[in-house]
Design brief:
The complex is a heterodimer of chains A (about 80) and B (about 190). Chain A has about 80 residues and is mostly helical. Chain A contains four helices and no strands.
Chain lengths: ~80, ~190
C-alpha cells in the first residue's frame, strides 16, 4: 500500500466525502495529505464555500411580460382534448 | 378542471420559477423557454384532467419534470459521443505526478463579507464561471450541487458510469474554483 496520495486523488476524496463518509483508509490518507499540503487545504476551504453558496439556489432567470403573454395566447388558441 | 383565468394567472405566477427550474437541470435558455411553453400548452390541452388533487403549481411542475426527462432521453444518444472525451489524463490543473501544476496553484481568496451585496456578487461570479462548463459537465454539476441529487440517481438520469461521473465532478469543481479565483477580486 502506498503511503501517500496525490493532490488529484485528495481532491477526489474530498468530493466523494461530500456524498457519503469515506472508508477509514481513504479518510486517513486524505487527512494526512491535508496535514502537509497547504494547496489542498486551500482547495478544501474554498470547495466548502462554493458548496454552501450553491445549495438550493436555482439559477437566475425570468421570462419577459411579452414572452408570458405569448405563452398564454399560444395555448388558448388551441382546442382542448376530449376526455 | 382549469379555467382560462386560472390558467393565465398561473403563467404570470409560475413561469419564471418553471424556467429557472429548467435551467437548473442544465437546459440552455432557449431550450428551457421552449420546454416551459410546451408545459403550459400541455396543461391547457389537458385541463379537463386537472381535478385539484395537487396544487396547480405542483401539477405544472410534474408536467415540466416529465418533459425534461423525455428531453434528456431523446438527447442521450447524441451526448454519448461527447462522453468519449472523458477518459484519459488530460487534466490541465495537475502535473504528471498528479500534484497541483505550478502556475495554477489554489490561492487564498478573501471570503465574501456577510453583507448581502458581497454575497450576491460572489454568487454572480460563481454562476458565470459555472456556465463556462461543457454541457454534460454543467448538467452533472447542477444536479449534484444545486439540486442535491445523489450520484446513483444522476448516473441513472444521464446514463453515466460511476467513473464517468467522478471524472466530470472532479473537473467541474477544479475548473470552477480556478475560474472564481481569477474573477473574484474583492
Amino acid at each position: 500500500m502506498r503511503n501517500q496520495i496525490t493532490c488529484k486523488k485528495a481532491v477526489l476524496y474530498m468530493l466523494q466525502k461530500e456524498e457519503q463518509p469515506l472508508s477509514p483508509w481513504k479518510r486517513f490518507m486524505l487527512y494526512r495529505h491535508l496535514g502537509y499540503c497547504s494547496l489542498c487545504r486551500i482547495f478544501s476551504g474554498q470547495n466548502k464555500a462554493i458548496n454552501e453558496t450553491l445549495k438550493n439556489k436555482l439559477p437566475d432567470g425570468f421570462l419577459s411580460t411579452e414572452e408570458k403573454q405569448q405563452i398564454v395566447e399560444e395555448a388558448l388558441k388551441r382546442p382542448a382534448d376530449d376526455h | 378542471m382549469l379555467n382560462e383565468k386560472q390558467f393565465t394567472d398561473s403563467v404570470y405566477s409560475y413561469s419564471d420559477l418553471l424556467f429557472r427550474f429548467a435551467l437548473s437541470r442544465g437546459l440552455e435558455d432557449e431550450e428551457a423557454k421552449d420546454i416551459v411553453q410546451d408545459t403550459y400548452l400541455s396543461a391547457w390541452k389537458n385541463r379537463m384532467t386537472y381535478r385539484g388533487e395537487v396544487s396547480l403549481k405542483n401539477w405544472l411542475f410534474l408536467i415540466l419534470k416529465n418533459k425534461i426527462t423525455d428531453h434528456f432521453r431523446k438527447t442521450a444518444q447524441r451526448k454519448k459521443e461527447s462522453l468519449l472525451n472523458i477518459g484519459g489524463n488530460d487534466d490541465p490543473y495537475f502535473d504528471e505526478e498528479d500534484h497541483w501544476k505550478h502556475g495554477l496553484y489554489p490561492e487564498q481568496w478573501k471570503s465574501p463579507a456577510e453583507e448581502a451585496v458581497q454575497q450576491k456578487e460572489f454568487y454572480n461570479v460563481l454562476q458565470n464561471c459555472s456556465r463556462k462548463m461543457k454541457q454534460i459537465q454543467y448538467r452533472v454539476f447542477l444536479l449534484k450541487y444545486v439540486d442535491g441529487m445523489n450520484s446513483t440517481d444522476i448516473c441513472k438520469q444521464l446514463q453515466l458510469t460511476a467513473s464517468n461521473y467522478w471524472v466530470l465532478v472532479h473537473r467541474a469543481k477544479v475548473q470552477l474554483r480556478a475560474c472564481i479565483q481569477k474573477n473574484w477580486v474583492e
